[in-house]
Amino acid sequence: MRRAMAEAEVGDDERDGDPTVMRLEARVADLLGKEAALFFPSGVMANQAAVWTFADRATEVLLDAEAHIIHWELGGTAALSGAQIRPVQASDMVMSADDLRRAFRVPARFQSAPSLVCVENTHNGAGGKITEVDELRAIRRVAAEHGLPVHMDGARLWNASIASGISLAEIAETVDTVMVAFSKGLGAPVGAALAGSRGAMERAWTARKLFGGAMRQSGILAAAALYALDHNIERLAEDHDNAHLLARMLDGAGGATVVPPDTNIVMIDLPAGKTFQPIAEAAAEEQVLISEWNPTRIRLVTHLDVSRDQVERAATVLRKVLERG
Chain centroid to CA 257: how far? Predict the structure, then answer.
């Protein structure tokens, strides 16, 4: 990947275009079955550009109450687009079409009108949960009933496709725009893309410029993403297998409960009386680092830099720590 970056053909993406970036954008649009795509420095910027593209000021955006756009994007919907969030409480692990339908307000002149629906697939906060295509289609129909577009935060859409066996294009067909990230499971150092209609991407280009995302010789970065697309999609199945191994080895350890993983994220709920910090400190003493989701939930993510042997060792250490009491 570093060699590909060093040897990348570059131009000026801000002016007349960078050839490597253009190849990446065409490749992503084709994979997702969309008219066009646009390269971004980050998934957060791409998500917020999609919101800015569709959501007028003083309107509201409907999405899962635990969505990344709500919790991990610094209030960007309000700060950048002047729109507000309407969180949709999921009746199960992720928002369904029925959940969305119940969340719409009765139209009234003194309330914010809806402008956009967002979905997240896979869903980070739900432990890499996949939303089935039939459910996504149902969500699209509910949005259409209200005349609204749908945007997908598909940072881990690659994982959803590999785990489900459903093509990226078939999943992306359920939404108007979709963001995909290159810097997570695919292992690129930076970057994401937003795909949709040519008109939507023209407006998103303006958002990218406005948000400070205009780049010059960005083919150096796009080359890493192209390498990732060529070499690192199919191998995501290894990450999913490793996540299932973690789940099997850790479920029930010291009374902990593992959320069964769909893909490469393993959430571990601690039993009453146990909290993250002492467990993290004990694991770190044996060179195993873990992430805190909240004080009583641990988040583990498998990826291309973690081998099967390392996963087994991490699970053995963490199981011992959890059972220590």
Answer: 24
Where does residue 212 fall: left (phi above 0), alpha (psi -120 to 50 degrees), or beta otherwise?
A: left
Report strand pairing: 192-196 vs 150-153. unpaired
The span from the CA of 227 to the CA of 96, in Å, is 35
Task: Supply 158's token pair.
Answer: 């690659």
> What's the whole-number mean pLDDT along residues 171-187?
97
Q: Is the pLDDT of residue 183 over 80?
A: yes
Axis-axis angle for helices 236-250, 157-164 (nearest 10) = 80
Instruction: Look at the block and give the residue holding tokens 């873990």.
Output: 290
pLDDT for the residue numbered 293 = 97
The C-alpha angle with vertex 196 and arms to 192 and 197, in degrees rounded to 5, equals 145
Run of H or E including 209: helix 198-210
Contacts of 113 (CB under 8 A, 6+ apart): 59, 60, 107
* 129 Cβ neighbours under 8 A, 6+ residues apart: 93, 94, 122, 123, 262
Domains of the chain: 2-231 (3.40.640.10), 236-323 (3.90.1150.10)
pLDDT at position 325 over 80: no
User: What tokens appear for 153 in the block?
Assistant: 């935060």
Q: Which DSSP state fits 184?
A: S
Q: Are the C-beta atoms of 260 and 247 separated by less than 8 Å?
A: yes
Averaged pLDDT for residues 26-36: 98
Beta strand 60-64 with 84-88 is parallel
Instruction: Report how far residue 53's alpha carbon sits from residue 46's, in angstroms, rounded to the nearest whole number.
Output: 10
CA distance 301 to 265: 5
Task: Say which residues have a Cβ less than 8 Å from residue 318's Cβ, sequence separation at least 6.
Answer: 250, 253, 279, 283, 288, 290
